[in-house]
Queue: 3 jobs
Job 1
Amino acid sequence: MEQIDLATPTISADIASRLRALIHAGDLGPGDRLPPERELARQMGVGRVSVREALRTLQANGYVEVRRGATGGAFVTQLDRPYRDWLTNMRSSEREINDILDLRVGLETQAARLAAGRRTDEHLTAMAEAIEAMSSSDSRVTFRNTDARFHGALAQAACNQRLEAAVASARGEMFSPLDSLAFTEVVESSRAAHSAIYEAVRDRDAEEAARAMVAHLEQTREELQQLIFGDVEGSDTP
């Protein structure tokens, strides 16, 4: 009889995966300093040994660099190597990026629909502030951060913790490789899309919020398809 593999990820592997997802989604960007080991252990409810091993894994894979001294710690790298690895993985299976976007469409469309009925003024403020910050983005790092802030605020406005966690997980499957797209065009198209979603949520128009989210993510799909498959020779450098 075939043996079933019931192996589960180690604690350190799970921590590394969670931190990697934050980096992929843009919640943590190049140059950001991770909390100290003690604080990470407290936040995640694990031991410092597990955190230390997770950081070693991230360092070995090019996600963080460890600096010594009074101002040292674990810092997110420029992500050149992880980004190249992500592109290679996406190019190995043409279905992969579409599967991720299909999942995001399903999850975030429902989040937008629910947010229109459940949002509070505080949720609207958080979304509006993210849009305003995106409008004045002066670097790809700040753009990634404001993009993550908007999608996170919208997911929170759905008032469903399981859905919010699922949205964060799906976004973590991507690398948010917007650094390689034409910066000015991406900022403008994303700001306009976020504004359309925000206005529908503000007006409590659930179906319009859902339509606006679908349009946004389908535009993202088109941009990523071009990035990943449109110019294989010229798109490896973030």
Note: The radius of gyration is 19 Å.
Job 2
Amino acid sequence: MGIKGKLAKIWALADVISYKAISKNPVKSQTKVLKYLIKNGRKTVFGFEHDFNNIDKYNDFKKRVPIRNYESLKPYIDKTVDGNTDVLWPGKPIYLSKTSGTTSGVKYIPISKESMKTHINSARSALLHYIHYSGNSNFINGKVMFLQGSPTLKKVNNIKTGRLSGIVAHYVPKYLQKNRLPTWSVNCIEDWNKKVDAIVEQTINEDMRLIGGIPPWVKMYFEKLKKKSNKKIGKIFPNFSLFVYGGVNFEPYRKGLENLVGKKIDSIELYPASEGFIAFQDSTREKGMLLNLKAGIFYEFVEPKHINNPKKRMSLKDVRTGVNYAIILNTSAGLWGYKIGDTIEFTSLKPFRIIVTGRLKHFISAFGEHVIVKEVEYAMKKAIKATGEAVNEFTVAPNVNPSAGKSHHEWWISFQNKPKNITRFSKNLDKLVREQNIYYDDLVKGGVLSPLSVVPLKKDAFEIYMKRKGKLGGQNKTPRLMNNRSIVAELKEFKIKL
């Protein structure tokens, strides 16, 4: 082990001890965070309008600060984007993170100097926790790469603006800069296909040891590498030992990626959002990600069915395992009572570990079944394991008025190869969803719905679809679940006959 590896392990131990100290009294830690946020919030337009001067306790805060989504907070964000100071947080944000919106179009999420620091420290802590618990620090002696958006930033009223992954590219620590790929110029290529082609050329002969990114886009990179070299990724990069991912559940992609690599490798999951770095996987042996109590975020939670009832929101003190919660953030960038749209579930309370279960808007309840992302991804993972099929991507939509038969769920799936037994695969999926969701099970048992059907697609169907939408690569993801057929209507041309 070189000097870098030894130093990394010492640093990793110190970081783990720091997190453990906070985890011993998490409620006290969260109380301190709330007091810090309120103290700074009093200096803002938002704080004045919501009577922050009379907030002492969490109950006071709940009474004065409602839960908001982006559209509800947009008037304040618009003032910030227009160049006004002290609107949501003292001063001006140092960045605006640009994300895809829904009814509001493009969203601009403010990032302050305080919150930017937590983004960087949290990403570092995730790697340090991995080093400590796995004992593997070898990746720091080779090349590392994160497939990310362009670091080219524009200015909006003198505030630098871009994708979060592009913003954080400006903060790669000095000790990793010599190891980092791709080069700055390649990273700035906007066209995703051209960018990945350039990355292949730049990395194919390098000692790649850590690779990170959203799984479907990393898979695309691996496929291009394999096509060019006619080798498994593990042969091209024999020291490749760690895959870092976030944004989507890795399990539906695991088999396909491991087939491309040719061996099993360690993986760690991150939960970074423009709004804050919420959690990271601190151990490869424990289920779930460690809730990040050093992110400058005061967390709140509410069951989706109570999202509009302010009396039902709760702090970390009152959460339980196995319950689906919408996560609400209050941040050191001035997001207050902010509903980011994700739902989570606690897998552990000592320490607090979570899994992402889906999106508030991404579920199917066309018939009252309320099937969520966690359930379909679990079913897909188990069906893949049972049948040996390799799946590239999928989305699920209801078929309310089929040309024949009863209403049902349709799973539009791009397989790596033609499925051997689509009937067996479909039955497995349906059984697994029914085991998890009693409402869906009742509807099938009662004859209201037929069992789900699978629509097989060409292996590159979703890649072409996303490219047409201008959402190929970067932080873009295909929605898992829809209550309408807008996506599948555009996938019809990719259907294959078996």
Note: The CA atoms of residues 363 and 372 lie 5 Å apart.
Job 3
Amino acid sequence: MPDPNPTDETRAVAERYARRGGLDRYSYLQADVWQSLQERQRALLKLLLRLGLTDLARLRLLEVGCGAGGNLLELLRLGFAPANLSGAELLPERLAQAQAVLPPALMLWGGDASTLDIVPASQDIVFQSTVFSSLLDDDFQQRLAAAMWSWVKPGGGVLWYDFTVNNPRNPDVRGVPLARVQQLFPQAVMTSRRLTLAPPIARAVSRLHPSLYPVFNAFPLLRTHVLVWLQKPGLG
């Protein structure tokens, strides 16, 4: 069976995002949102320290699916240099939002990231956050993963944050188990950490009291996301 046209999946992704409502649930004013964000930030900082990646201003990082620029703004605050950061975003309206808030020195691309003309082995880190769970076509996932891997320098890696379990209430997304992550990046040396309280539980308990978030999050089985480092073997 021939591979589907990549534009079919990019069009489908745009339609899936258009169906999403209730964007207030992702506002930083929501207790579950800021607590999951801070948890992810702490996990990322610990990962960078463990990897010895402490000179952040010298690291080149490209985010695939940068949305309105929120993650790139976080990385700037952590110490990454604007000239060494870049992002790719499929949806024009989200790309425009990112362009409005990010410094001009930060390069942004629009369109299908798998077709971008990025210099091979030019990035220390290629980052994706909840992008692959919105890609329901396996072949398109593989093409994008191959492109991302080609952009990573030897010794660098793909930084991955996504959820691993399906949401039965949302057919527009699909969990990406760790076995699938390894399949997408078969040459990578993979390390992972489970985090993020399942969002429906997080919203419910945080409405009762924000302090309940860490209580429920202490149970690993209630965490739905993973932060993964997929390291490319170095030269020699």
Note: The domain at 6-20+54-197 is CATH 3.40.50.150 (Rossmann fold).
